[in-house]
Design goal:
The structure is a homodimer.
Chain A lengths: L13 H14 L2 H6 L8 E3 L5 E3 L1 H12 L4 E13 L2 E14 L2 E16 L2 E11 L7 E3 L2 H4 L1
Parallel strand pairs in A: 1-6
Antiparallel strand pairs in A: 1-2, 3-4, 4-5, 5-6
């Protein structure tokens, strides 16, 4: 197994790193996928309905298992973000089409992606995905005026 | 409805803000709960199995609805965190005991809590909670050596 990330070094804004992440999912490219993650020991990934997965080796193994059934056609939409100097907290609604043994399936996924800026540039430290609501409405936004 | 947060101003480390958050859940204290959140318009909350909720008014309304069934006895455990100068990305496994009309229920929840440091101090910008695995094991951690 090749853990060398140097051949897939990525640079860019949090948005560009996020694009790399989803391109890697769509291509089933495990090395490219892992290259967007931080080297921190406590990086966390939660797949929809799954437990907490901590650290690059376990995260890599989880995506290897996913990719053994094919690539993941996840398209992030409706980005919401909160930024600071060295962090970017992204919330996206993913429209996911999975090509598996039983054919294509579609689903909505609510994902939080957190990027921190370190010596290597912006890197993913948390990907938390959970199943979207069965309702078509995946988002609730109300203004204060609506409440009164 | 009182949106004044000044009476519940909180200061402290990300850990202290997180403690305030869970104490507010356990006490069903909506004002204290909202006081830990950032003023940013794009703060995001995802309740287990639910859609994305954006902004303080909608988040407040969601917790009002939850508290109408009673307080939430959620105890965060097994903190994992990635820190930068102005951000703290926390992953916790919550043991939740909900006191509802049908009596107490227990569940495991996997939560990501992200705190950013702003002019007001550390504040919560994202709480993403999803149902834990039905297995007892809520966490997968493997070292590289195990994979070879």
């Amino acid at each position: 197994m090749n853990h060398d990330r140097s051949t897939h070094a990525v640079l860019g804004s949090p948005e560009q790193i996020e694009t790399q992440f989803y391109e890697a999912l769509q291509n089933g490219d495990i090395d490219k996928l892992m290259s967007v993650w931080s080297d921190d020991d406590d990086i966390v990934c939660v797949h929809p309905g799954g437990p907490r997965i901590v650290g690059a080796p376990a995260i890599r193994a989880s995506f290897d298992a996913i990719f053994s059934n094919g690539a993941v056609y996840a398209e992030p939409q409706k980005l919401r973000r909160v930024l600071s100097h060295s962090s970017a907290v992204h919330s996206v609604l993913e429209c996911v089409r999975v090509i598996g043994p039983e054919g294509p399936q579609s689903a909505w996924i609510v994902s939080t992606n957190v990027y921190l800026k370190g010596p290597q540039g912006w890197r993913l430290v948390c990907h938390h995905a959970s199943p979207g609501s069965p309702r078509e409405l995946q988002e609730i936004v109300e203004t204060a005026s609506i409440l009164h």
